[in-house]
Amino acid sequence: KKAQWVMFGDDVMGGLSKGKLSELKEEEISFYRLEGDVSTANNGGFIQFRTSVNLQGTSYEGIRIKVRGNNNKYFIHLRTGATVFPWDYYDISFETSNEWKNISLPFSGFKKSRRLLPSKINSSKIKSIGLVAYGKDFQAELDLASIELY
User: Phi-psi bin for 104: left (phi > 0), alpha (psi -120 to 50), beta?
Assistant: First the structure.
C-alpha cells in the first residue's frame, strides 16, 4: 500500500527553511526525494515529510528504511497518542551516503523529545512517521525508496 506523504517545514512557525518533496524514478527504483535548504535562522531549522499510519493494535519492533543522501545525518520522528504538542515526538538519527542502504531502526533506540512522554514506544499507538532534516544549516537531499515496519 502506498503511503500519502506530506511535506512541510519550519515556516509553519516562522522559520526560513525551504524544501520540496518529489517522486522520482532511477533505473528500476522509485523513490521520494526530500530536498531543500535547512536554516536555523528565526528559531527554525527543519524540513520533513510525514505520513499518517493506523496500526490498529499491531505490534512491531522497529522501522526498516532504504535510503541514500548527501552524507548528512537525518532523523525519523514518530508521533503517538501520547505526543500531544507539536514539539512532542520520538526520534532516532541515521547517516546517509550516495549509495542506497538498508537501515533497521529498533523502537528501543528512539529517544523521547520531552521528559514527560512515556519512555517506551507502543508501536500499536504510532500515528505518524516523518523523515526529517534538521538541527543545523545545510542543504538537504534525502532519498527514500522503501519504508516498512518489522
Answer: beta
Provide, rounded to the nearest whole percent, the portion of the chain with pLDDT above 70. Answer: 99
∠ CA 52-115-128, rounded to 5°: 5
Look-up of cell digits 523521547: 112
DSSP type of residue 94: E
Grid cell digits, residue 20: 520540496
The CA-based angle 73-150-112, given to 5 degrees, is: 50
13: Cβ contacts below 8 Å, ≥ 6 apart: 43, 44, 86
Contact 63, 105 (CB under 8 A): yes
- Which tens digit of pLDDT belongs to each residue from 95-145? 999 999 999 999 999 999 999 999 999 999 999 999 999 999 999 999 999
Q: Which strand ranges, in their side-by-side order, compose the sheet holding 126-134? A: 6-9, 46-52, 126-134, 73-80, 90-95, 111-112
Residue 115 is placed in which grid cell?
A: 521528559
- Distance in angstroms (rounded) separating the CA atoms of residues 22 and 32: 6
pTM, 2 dp: 0.94
